[in-house]
Amino acid sequence: MLSRLTRPQALAVCALPVVGVVAAAVFAPLPFTVAQPGLTANVLGDDRGTPVITISGAPTRETTGQLRMTTIEATSPDARVSLGQVIDGWWRTDQAVMPRDAVYPSGGDVKEIERYNEAQMRQSQDAATRAALSYLDIEKRDVDVKLELADVGGPSAGLLFSLGIVDKLDGDGSGGDLTGGRTIAGTGTINADGRVGAVGGVALKTQAAHRDGATVFLVPKAECSDAESELPKGLRLIPVTTLEGAVNSLVALEKGRGSVPSC
């Protein structure tokens, strides 16, 4: 059939399958999610009228400044992400294209993923409480700590929860605040032994922190290079590996004495 067509006609006919393949690639769903800076929340304050941290069984102190946990906002696990969205996200500094399985556990539907993230948050809150009380040498059976933060899942707020508990119970250890009156943000998982773990999405979280007034950002040391890649002007990075190290860095920053690590 093609032998009876003119050259331009033949090329046009041959191009049709190519156009179809390209169009399919552009509009077909891909195994990615597109993320952007999400909400931040002050763990020393209230969320929807309810204190994020409530402590009973031990005296607490009034705090100044803010400790803001940070999040990323990603396309829904069942959203259709096209090639066009992926390409657009690669070129933008306020978005990131990430493998879907790096953001959401594979194999589950939306409800299962929500339950998984809620379970991760509960485990993170328990670990954060244990880490903070252990750091302060307080028996967990003597103190009840309740953590409330709506519409946030996953374990990445663990470090900030621990710091909030420490600040409310002990501050800098000598009557001052861990924050020194600043707005300090950060991210990082934490285990009951106080070790801080990596979380992902830190370049977007630094943007969220800067947007909401933070001047200091606590980042898991292993993710320093990621945090530096799109670091907003005026936001200081402090790498951390443990809760104790994070507290020491904030106290040194507050008092203007001692070494404050940097990326």
Automatic annotation (TrEMBL):
**Gene Ontology BP term (one):** protein catabolic process
Give all residue intervals belonging to the Lon proteolytic domain.
153-243
Question: Which one of the record's GO molecular function terms can you name?
Answer: ATP binding
Q: Which InterPro entries match?
A: Lon_proteolytic (IPR008269), Lon_Prtase (IPR027065), Ribosomal_Su5_D2-typ_SF (IPR020568), Ribsml_uS5_D2-typ_fold_subgr (IPR014721)
Q: Which SUPFAM superfamilies match?
A: Ribosomal protein S5 domain 2-like
Tree of life domain: Bacteria
Q: Which Gene3D superfamilies match?
A: 3.30.230.10
- From the Swiss-Prot or TrEMBL record, give the protein name: Lon proteolytic domain-containing protein
